[in-house]
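Bench log, entry 3. Co-assembly request; chain sequences pasted below exactly as received.
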Amino acid sequence: MHKGTLTKEEMKTWVRNRYYYQTRIPKKDSSILTKSDDPDFRRDWVRRVRDHDGDEKNTGGLELWLRLGDGVGLNRAEVSSLTNVLPGVRRACDAYVEFVNGHSLLESVAASLTELSAGPLMGQRITAFENHYTWIEPSALDYFRSRTSQAPRDAQEGLEFVLGNAKTDKDHIACLAALTRKCEILWELLDGVEWAQSRPKIVDRARMRKNELMIVLPERAIELNSTGMEILEACKGEATVNKIAEAMMNRHNTIETVFTDTYEFLEKMKSAGALEYI
Amino acid sequence: MNEISYRPYNLIAELTYRCPLKCPYCSNPLDLTNYTETLTTEDWCSAFEQAEKLGVVHLGLTGGEPSTRSDLEVLVKHASELQLYTHLVTAGMPIDAKRLAVLAKYGLCSVQLSVQDSTPEMSDTIAGTKSFDRKRVFAEEVRALDLPLVLNVVLHRENLENLPEIISMASDYGAHRLELANTQYHGWALKNRAALLPTLDQLKIASRVVQDSRLLYPEMEILFVLPDYYSERPKPCMGGWAQNTMIITPNGRVLPCHNAGTLTELEFWRIPENSLDDCWTTSPGMNTFRGYEWMKDPCKSCEHRERDFGGCRCQAFALTGDMAATDPACSLSPHHPEIEKARDESIQSAPSFVYRDSVKKMGGKI
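Structure output for the full assembly:
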């Protein structure tokens, strides 16, 4: 992204999917609020929810992200409906909320410390967008601009809380583990986005059986239904995962979940060794 | 309870028990002299046709060493005409490049090569014969023909510490899959158990090595499971007795797993005297352990029975004398102390191997 090599399509996919992460943040922060007995902590922390949701309608971080969506040419209704979020991205973001729900206040705050690198990153991102992606209107970048001041302040507060409350070795280890897990979740999110741009191809060693719907590999045979076969037939190393899912959506517009079903099917076929990606 | 469907997806055709190697963990039967008479080319071709009608998709041509048969080309050609996914399981010798090219032309789909260790010295020591250099060249021959290559390495206490080198070798050979198979203690391997059984520490290190290697070689699938002697629950042997796989021995006996011949009380039928369908569907032996009715406690009332089917019948018989007993590898088995004792003994120093010579036993030359 920062090198300027993303196509418009790739940029749109990132913006659409990263919006799902944005929508999880106020939920995650609300969960953190319920963990604290300290009015001072809650007063400070609730600001994060307001930063994202806005003090009134059509303000706040989520609205700014939707404007970024407008700026890259996405349909706002589609983005905010969250229906076309990639399954891998959804899993990663949901895992973050679940992590916070299931862990202590201290660990949850520690997990938020990835913000420590967000401040400088936002500056780089704005420069990169202005230099490389001139097709995006400058006003669409207001979300990043708002974060250049919010992120360092949030990170500083979080860091002070963790340093002040992590007292034992056990606490330290738990905080490190929480932050590590959060880094993994962000990584999984990006993996999910990157994968959508890759071009699946049935591996050469696979054979399709003609008299029944089945793909046969050296170590396993997988029975398919006719829709599965239709998806596999599109896996020629030319169309991206995204394109294949869109084509399926156009052809089977009566099935509401066809977009994500296609992704999940391709993920399964990939882990079964039936597909390679180019 | 889940309804079990009995469709044989997989046929393992043991074309012969002759083999140029002498591995101390050989899993073929102990009574090799009973197998000097083997099925004819026509018998095998007819078996493949019947198997395809029964639903078989995968055909594994194995042995012994399948390339010791001179009709391998005919068999591969026939199988591929039947649209079977034909897989050659070989030691890479005595087969040569020319023969392999013919098999590829006739529709062979993939090749599994066994290698015993990562260095010529160690690998040849375990194989009991000079073979490592030939196997390396064979792997090149397979990849030059664009055939998918699976590398299979049997693990035991003498080679577990070379695991990083073994994995890197598999990647160098261009394998798309590496099967790290723990020795199963049946037949000849049970004779050598004390010399083969790894220690828990060795296995813990091996697990770590495998995990790291999966990141290092993302293009290669690495199969590694903890040996049943060290897991609390037994393995669901063959994915369940006579459910999805059938084995035909060199003399035509149709079995649910390649060791089932050791269950001497069971009656299995043979081709060509019987149809393959009858051997699979009707023979008494095949039906003995289908379903759950045969189980005794602790399996009978166990929540895991639909997952592991009580474990391995052959291991239960070999170690307890009762083929319907719970596999002693299961910690719930009253015979589990036998497994614990073997584990304890693994910490002691190991005796030397007892090698196996199939050619001497069966006569003739390779």
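Chain B has a mean pLDDT of 89. The two ends of chain B are 50 Å apart (CA to CA).
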